Amino acid sequence: MLDRKPKALSGGQRQRVAMGRAIVRKPQVFCMDEPLSNLDAKLRVSTRTQIAALQRRLGVTTVYVTHDQVEAMTMGDRVAVMKGGVLQQVDTPLALYDRPANLFVAGFIGSPAMNLLSGATAGDGAAVVDGFELPIDRSAAAASSGAVTLGIRPESWRVAAPHESGYAVRVAVVEELGADAFLYATPAGVDATERPGEVVPQVVARLEGRQQLHPGQEVRLVADPRAVHVFDSVSGERLALAG
């Protein structure tokens, strides 16, 4: 690119040239503010891996600012999640994924995002969501204000066997990806026509592919209680993992 004027470069080329100019100066710290934002999807993936490999080879501390959680998860040794200028949680990528500190972090980390279902504690160690009772950690139930939000990752769902009870949902869209599929559904007990102007909750499940599910079909989903996160709906803070 040395013989070309900046106006002759595309936005992505300008961005990569700017990064190269910064790297050759051999600074003590890199501060990268969304350096991949102008790249197309394919180039973004390849450049992301190149930056990660380069950072490890140079051994230079890098502060990387991004709205793309995939970049944060794959490139960061430690990730700081911020909301409105307030630090929410700092931890390793997998710790953020497995133990989000509050509802904001839970909904932000993960693609597709964690399912967040509003419910209420019922009895000893259980919560009810749309009429479906799910066991939760007893200490979490005791520490809650009564109103809880259950967080369930898409991969933690499975389709219930014929003899099992489960969370009833109505299929909206199924994205077949070959080895697996993403099911997008709405709670079976929720009628969108009765809630004009309201956002109807959506449930996302990552299932094995070729399930032969069709839009409008009603199915029941079951989640492993040990993989259910419990948050207090009032404070938004994480209470515990069920089990």
Task: Give descriptors for this structure.
243 residues; alpha+beta; Rossmann fold; OB fold (Dihydrolipoamide Acetyltransferase, E2P); 2 domains; 6 helices; 15 strands
Q: Can you tell me the CATH superfamily of the largest domain?
A: Nucleic acid-binding proteins
The percentage helix is 10-25%
The percent range for strand residues is 25-35%
Oligomer: single chain
The tally of helices reads 6
CATH topology of the largest domain: OB fold (Dihydrolipoamide Acetyltransferase, E2P)
Order of helices and strands: HEHEHEEHHEEEHEEEEEEEE
Query: Looking across the biggest beta sheet, what order are the strands in?
Result: 7-6-5-8-14-15
Task: Give an account of the 3D structure.
The protein contains 6 helices and 15 strands. It is an alpha+beta fold and about 240 residues long. Strands 7-6-5-8-14-15 form a 6-stranded antiparallel beta sheet. The chain has a 5-stranded antiparallel beta sheet with strand order 9-13-10-11-12, with no helix packed on it. The chain has a two-stranded parallel sheet with strand order 1-2.
SSE map:
Blueprint lengths: L10 H14 L4 E5 L7 H18 L2 E5 L3 H7 L3 E5 L2 E6 L1 H6 L4 H6 L6 E7 L4 E4 L2 E4 L2 H6 L3 E6 L4 E3 L7 E10 L3 E8 L15 E6 L9 E6 L4 E5 L5 E4 L2
Parallel strand pairs: 1-2
Antiparallel strand pairs: 3-4, 5-6, 5-8, 6-7, 8-14, 9-13, 10-11, 10-13, 11-12, 14-15
